[in-house]
Specification:
Oligomer: single chain
Shape: globular
Distance between the termini: 47 Å
Number of helices: 10
CATH class of the largest domain: Alpha Beta
Radius of gyration: 19 Å
């Protein structure tokens, strides 16, 4: 695997022995964004980190799909409108593999409906359930059958979040640190991202911590607490530390940036649009257009809620607010769903 310029391998050369599929285009760009009548923020445009189906999931999939070969089957598990399942189907196909999908019902909006339709068109086999536990039981049965089959079948964890997948986001943190060192942006005091299964938050905290960037990760919770919680994120960090140390002797000191969870944008149900999120998505989109930058779509499940949290943090008063520099990690690629009717993310429901 080519390692030149890949920040993770520059810092931990031993990890280059792990299988990795080169799916992304790195580093993803950073942009300054002035909100009309509001604050200035920074964006990390992970919605532009791959030629197709970009977003934060690509980083984990590079490692999760590393052992996959043409003709293999991959299982992706998630909600009905899961961007993880969609991204898995797209990038597995790039490797010549087929994707089986197991999904469950949740609150929907126009973008998640579009994602769901795309999944149905792309997957080799697909089953849906009303209940998450039934879907997970089906996934467990698939995994048992895969082990018995002797190869060619690959189970991916929920949301792509295990220590292997987290490595892609450790690279993301090191990548951002390199862009800061190159003067492309100031050191952010806060890095805001959506919190689902926790892999992105865990990897960024570890990558930025190892690089010595003094910042705080603000994880905007978008999923129920049993899935999206600080304990899970720290457990992923611990497992990823062990993995790095197993492959690279330079991985002895592996500090992580501090993480706080913002519970204010959850909205009461996974996938339910939030009024504050819909408003933030519209503001960010208009600001990006006025700045002449790349089009920006923030989905109502994840990215719009993180944008609402970033906007609230950037505009709130308090100790140190004058020196606050907020970066939003843009996790959703709207290009495959660029129909004008989808860009608002859906009518808001629940608390504002």
């Amino acid at each position: 695997m080519e390692s030149k310029g890949f920040a993770l391998y520059d810092r931990f050369p031993g990890l280059a022995t792990l299988p990795r599929a080169a799916l992304g285009v790195f580093p993803s760009p950073v942009e300054r964004l002035r909100i009309p009548g509001g604050p200035e923020l920074w964006l990390k445009r992970d919605d532009r980190n791959a030629p197709v189906a970009a977003g934060n999931k690509v980083r984990a999939l590079e490692f999760l799909l590393g052992p996959v070969h043409a003709g293999d089957h991959v299982l992706a598990v998630g909600g009905e409108g899961s961007t993880h399942v969609y991204a898995t189907s797209v990038h597995a196909e790039r490797l010549g593999a087929r994707t089986d999908a197991i999904r469950w019902a949740h609150a929907m909006h126009p973008v998640s409906h579009a994602v769901a339709r795309a999944i149905e068109c792309r997957c080799a086999s697909e089953s849906r359930s009303r209940w998450i536990m039934v879907a997970l039981a089906r996934a467990a049965a698939w995994r048992i059958a895969a082990r018995a089959s002797g190869g060619g079948r690959h189970y991916l964890p929920l949301g792509g979040s295990n220590s292997i997948g987290v490595l892609g986001h450790v690279n993301a943190g090191l990548e951002l640190a390199g862009q800061i060192a190159d003067g492309l942006l100031p050191t952010p005091t806060h890095v805001v991202l959506p919190l689902g299964t926790g892999g992105t938050a865990a990897g960024l905290a570890l990558g930025l911590g190892v690089a010595g960037v003094k910042t705080t990760i603000v994880a905007a919770r978008v999923a129920p607490w049993p899935v999206a919680n600080l304990y899970r994120v720290h457990a992923l960090i611990r497992r990823t530390r062990r993995l790095i140390r197993r492959y690279d002797r330079s991985g002895s000191a592996l500090p992580a940036a501090p993480i706080v969870v913002d519970h204010s944008v959850y909205g009461g149900e996974y996938g339910r649009p939030l009024a504050a999120g819909t408003s933030a998505a519209a503001l960010f989109r208009r600001a990006a257009v006025e700045a002449g930058g790349e089009p920006l779509t923030l989905d109502a499940t994840y990215a719009a809620k993180a944008a609402a949290a970033a906007l609230a943090l950037a505009t709130s008063c308090g100790a140190g607010s004058a020196d606050r520099r907020v970066l939003l990690w843009v996790t959703f690629d709207g290009r495959p769903f660029a129909d004008a009717d989808l860009l608002g993310g859906g009518a808001p429901q629940g608390p504002p």
